[in-house]
Structure formats: structure tokens, C-alpha cells
TrEMBL record:
It comes from Desulfoluna limicola. This is Lysine transporter LysE. The keyword Transmembrane applies. Keywords: Cell membrane, Membrane, Transmembrane, Transmembrane helix. The lineage of its organism: Bacteria, Pseudomonadati, Thermodesulfobacteriota, Desulfobacteria, Desulfobacterales. It is a multi-pass membrane protein.
Amino acid sequence: MFESLVVVLGVALAAQLSPGPDMMLIFRHTTTSFRAGMACVLGICLGLTVHVTLSVAGLAVVIRTSPMLFNAIRYAGAIYILYVGIRCLTGNSGLTFKAEEKPAAPFGQAFRDGLFCNLLNPKVTLFILSVFSQLLAPETPTHIRALFGLALVLEGFLVWVLFSMLLDRPAFRIHYERYQNAVSRGCGFILCVLAVLMAV
């Protein structure tokens, strides 16, 4: 179980570090106000909690009703993770720091931005389903799946908080803007390798 948890968290971390809508939004809010950035992180994590809950409950139903469908989800999940990895390898992140000052969003607005950005992104559920279906066996108890889901949300919270704290440092901003595409490609390579290993 411990090995599966490490892999789940590793795959999720690689996906988090490759720029996507959540990172873009945290980036935008944190560079205007650390408080707004934290509000955005809280909103994203609440949205992530909803996705994880739906994924855990959905897999439990699928396993009970159709083992064949569960196997189909597993193979489709490996393909989807491979697709995400290829996108990271071939895309540009596009995060740039503007010189001009922008007004900080109120706490509530930043929270809602983060919540709806994550909640309305179906790719989050697809990714979580893909990872869980690969690494959790059909006989895995629901409470163990829920524990994995909780670990996923906590990891997301800690990574985004750390990212926001680092964005407050000018030296980090300069280095991140310069090397963000290399980070994205490294994460893409890891996801591609893991997808192939999961499929076989």
C-alpha cells in the first residue's frame, strides 16, 4: 500500500508542477497579493476535494457493477496520463511576469476563482480516475481509497502553498520564468514513463 501511495503522490506532483489552469491562476493572484494567492489555493483545494470524492465513489460503484468497465477505465487512464505527459513535453507554459502593478483581488473573489477553475475542469476528474484506477486494485477497501484521496488533497495544498511562498521571492520568479519549460518537459517525461509502466 505504501508503494502505491508514493506512486500516486509522485504522479500527482509531476502533474502539478507542469503548468496548467490552476497554476496560472495561483500565479496571477499571488503576484498581486500573497493573501489573494492563499485564497485561490484554498478554493482550488476545495474543488480538488470534490473531484477526489466523486472519483473514489465512482470507482467503488464501477468495481461493484462491472469489472470489465473498470479494466477499460484502467487502460483509458494509462492513455490519458500518456497524453498529459506528451502535452507537457511539447507545449510552452507561457507564465510571464508583468512589470506593471495590478490590483489584488478580494479574498472572496480569489477563493471563487480557484474553486470554479478547478471544479469546472473535467480534466481533473479524468486525471484522478486515471491514477486511482491504475494503482488501486478492485479489492482495495473504500476507506483506503479515501485515505489516498485525502493524501492527494493535502499534497496539493502543501505544494501550492509552497509555490505561492516562493513566488513572493524575486529571485525565484526570475529563475522560474527562465526554466519553467524545462520543468514542464521533465514532468512530462516522468508522466510518459509512468503511463507506459502502468499500461504494461
